[in-house]
Design a protein that fits this description.
Largest sheet: 8 strands, mixed
Radius of gyration: 25 Å
Number of strands: 17
CATH class of the largest domain: Mainly Beta
CATH topology of the largest domain: Immunoglobulin-like
């Protein structure tokens, strides 16, 4: 009986110590990105990719209103990352790239804004009838295939940034202000995608293929300048 009681007492005494070890586990790291003043936080688009003992993991930050900072949990499955790479697009600014080694609990970085010039892009869709069948708007998206090399990955979903929408007129013509990405060396290697969508549902009506592009690519290479009026053919979505 004495031996049992002694063993039980030792076990009870060890339990708080073991619990304390779990509580005292070091906090997982995070990256804090501060936004420049005057930039609406809901308009900021941030993609990131991290590497660590867990392998690699990438996703994007969900935008929200009235924020001065965005936080990224620099861990996965309870394991801290070694490095986090960020690609951020702030409207009116150059695309920002950051390579952030994780060396502590909190890594703080300032997202800077180098003003980017705008261009007025003009296009026209044919056949025009596709824009008259139902309400439609054109969504313009920037694709960054160069992000794979920056993130250090071979394949995967291409990083994209939404640039805006515009409603074509009865003749299929449209005009939209776009960032002049050609003036930024990194962004120059990207492409533009034009998608015809239903405004309410967001369903894709057609992909717009620029005439004169080589191959069967439905995308337009970044250029400066573009033709005064870029012609597109509408390829209906199945």
């Amino acid at each position: 009986m004495f031996r049992f009681a002694l063993g039980f007492a030792i076990l009870v005494g060890l339990t708080p110590a073991l619990a304390g070890q779990e509580v005292d586990s070091p906090p997982l790291p995070k990256v804090v990105l501060s936004l420049p003043s005057g930039i609406p936080s809901e308009s900021v688009q941030i993609n990131y990719f991290m590497v660590g003992p867990f392998g690699g993991y990438g996703t994007y930050v969900k935008p929200a209103k009235k924020r001065s900072t965005y936080e990224i949990d620099a861990s996965r499955d309870g394991k801290p990352a070694r490095d986090v790479k960020v690609i951020a697009f702030l409207p009116g600014c150059d695309i920002v790239t950051l390579d952030i080694p994780i060396e502590g609990e909190v890594q703080e970085r300032q997202l800077t804004c180098e003003p980017l010039e705008w261009i007025l892009f003009s296009g026209q869709i044919s056949p025009v009838s596709i824009t008259l069948e139902k309400p439609a708007e054109i969504e313009v998206v920037y694709l960054a295939p160069w992000a794979h090399q920056f993130f250090g990955i071979i394949d995967g979903i291409v990083t994209t940034f939404r640039l805006g929408t515009v409603v074509p007129d009865k003749e299929g013509r449209f005009e939209i202000k776009l960032p002049d990405f050609y003036r930024q060396t990194t962004a120059r290697d990207g492409e533009l995608e034009f998608i015809l969508r239903e405004p309410k549902s967001g369903n894709i009506i057609a992909y717009l293929k620029p005439l004169g592009e080589s191959g069967n690519s439905p995308r337009l290479k970044i250029s400066s300048p573009y033709f005064p009026l870029v012609q597109f053919t509408a390829e209906k979505s199945e």
